[in-house]
Amino acid sequence: MKLFTFPLSDSRATLENVGGKGMSLAKMIRAGFPVPDGFHITTDAYRAFVDVNNLQTKILSALKDADSSLPASLDTASASIIRFFAESQIPSDIASAITDAYTDLNRKSQIENRKSVAVRSSATAEDLPEASFAGQQETFLNVRGEEELLEAVKKCWASLWTARAIAYRIKNNIDQSTVALAVVMQEMVDAEAAGILFTANPINGRRDEMVINAAWGLGEAIVGGLVSPDTIVAEKATGKVKQYDVAEKTVITVRTEKGTREDPLDDARRRSKVLNEADIVELVNIARRIESYYGKPQDIEWCHASGRFFIVQSRPITALPTYPAEGGEAPIEWAPPNPKGIYMRTGVVDLMPSPLSPLYVTWAIPVLINQMKPLSARLGMGSPVLQEDYYVAINRYAYMNAAFPAKAWWWIIAGMLPAYPRLLRRMVPMWRDELHPEYQAAVAKYHGKNFGKMAAGELWRNAQEILTAAMYYACGLLFATMGASAGSEGLLTQVYNKFAKQEGDPDANALLIGWDNIPVRSVKSLYDLALWIRENENLAGYILNTSSHELVVNLEKPESVPTPLFTEFTSRFKMHLEKFGHLLFQMDFAEPLPCDHPEMLLETIKMYLRGQGDNPHECQHASAAKRIQTTETMRNRLKGFKRWAFIKALNWGQSLAEVREDALAEIGLGYPILRAMLGELGSRLVTAGAIQQADDIYWLEKPEIETCVRELEQGDLLDNLSARVEERKAFNKRAGQETPPPMMPMKKKFMGIKTSVWLAESESNQTSNVIKGVATSAGKVTAPACILRGSEDFHKMRPGDVLVAGATTPAWTPLFAMASAVVTDIGGPLSHGSIVAREYGIPAVMGTGVATNRIKDGQVITVDGGAGTVELREMT
Known about the structure:
- This protein is an alpha+beta fold.
- The protein contains 26 helices and 27 strands.
- 44% of the residues lie in helices and 15% in strands.
């Protein structure tokens, strides 16, 4: 006889009949942990419901066209299946079993006045280490009465077929015909406080620490990312508090007559501690016993009511960092180099998201700082007084020091500010008519030169000349386009919102999109090349069926490929690389360029050949039309002073928006030649026995290269530097697994402005399953994530994926044609990723601080570009 329900503590609970969540709760309640009582609705009930209503055939039919790379197909399948469930009836024998168990639960309730329950889904594959996708199915709180209860159960069952759950099973090869869902029914705890506890520190991996997130009210505000919780770090052995960060808690989830709602929190609790020391000790003691019971670190959901703690879920922590006690290295320490400094990951640092090469740190960064002086003098602002660590690498991550000395403030007040009105008129012409042509001329000097015939000293001097030109140009952008763009967009947004915008009008961003800039033209070029290829069936078939790596090899010997027109394709593709192959992936010249590794470009061409992705010509034209229409509407709407102010702000904002991406795109103009020079010098160091391979030159420091060059010219023997190189590579690999603090020391405000406007959240506040960032392009998408740490990962990107990266630069633009959304670690509203995402009309969340470390490849996430949140659907 099939059992449709049995008590929560029943020993018959198994993964197969009650799912992962149900089995865990059954174990804990039998072990004596304070778990609210309840009952299971078994997978037999789900299967009987499906059988009686003849749903299995309908489900499989709806799934036949579902493709994990096509979000629209997943949404269509999901909507159909959920409609099937809504239209079906729960058989009377199953309904009776559920309502009888509900009546019995109310009769024996240990919690006074219990009239409502929490209805939680429990998947049979959920919470397994090899198939962890907790949180994909639904939970319904404060459910009252038999009718509401049965409806909630049916919705739980249907949630097995959300788009994200379907996509996850496709990605992980889980047979859709075998899955089933159990439901856990528990007494509803009217929590005064709730949160999440990790029995090991999920940030640094320390097993002797516990991390607690806590907020007032029910736990849904934390889980949904609606509130910033208090974050507490406590000793595991004693519960002693090591760190307590009190958050400003603006929202509280409360019970209503039907369900729950989020209310503003305006009383003293908004800025007060949720848990006192005694509470923390008690909660840590419970959590320590749960971890001991399971024998591994746990992720625990808890709530507190009437002076008692309750545990509503516990599951293993996934992807916990290794700590020295388990054989790993000690965590990297983060401390300001100068205690008086204020170090921030912002500004031009957006173009340096990853750990930098030692050569870039010791050579390029000092040159970048030094070039500010001649440029400032050229602009009539005098010589700036900058601290030596104005730009600095901390654990190889770039930071800007915003703690200006008194002399620097005097220069700002007496030199820079008086010159700025004149500069506002000169900025765009200066970039177009002076900075850009000068940089082009410096690079053109070396086109066609044979670097193999140059002496080592000459190579090094020429490399320094190219680098100086590149950094001078980059400094010019800080004055001419980057900083000014932030000011102009901010002013335009304020004027537009105050004087012009009405209900139903687009955001101010609509006034700044649709330009035919270099990154956009690069994508158009790939699209046009794909259209040309498509005209020849044999060529199209060959390119689609050949790996991009093999295609790159064959580009160097096109005559060896028997496919007609491949030689012509090679010529056309190389013309594309000549125009756009210098676009930077990031400012560190150690990073290969598109011209070095064009596999990503070939994948974009293949996408267009398959008929996927939007036509970039149409995208750009649509954006431009929206800009023009919005502009004209506002011009006609406004009169008098308002119209004058709007047009002034509009002209300034649009003039900078039009050239900003072009200016950024050209930073790497000299990088192909610089990399060729360094590659030649690196080859000579290999021959001399100093390093193992030519690219190892990037892992040397500037003084070491200067010594090597001097010894090469003198004919001396060179030291073997390979051990240093390997040590530095190992450090960067470790650093790449860290999440650098967005600011040191962390401040909520700087110069009266909230730092959250342009900086990522502190990592200690990013431990829940909802990551917070800066909302930069509206829209909401649920899709698999693709983690891209650099150009070497670009081959992984598939149409419909969410692009997750440290930051993006113009070279990443072709990937936006594939992406359904974009998420980055650093950046803000004016970052490249924000601008291009708005052009493509896809959601974007910048400045999360932790996305590339918290999100896993293939993990289904929900990106809300309007709210600035990323929900981790597979892990909590």
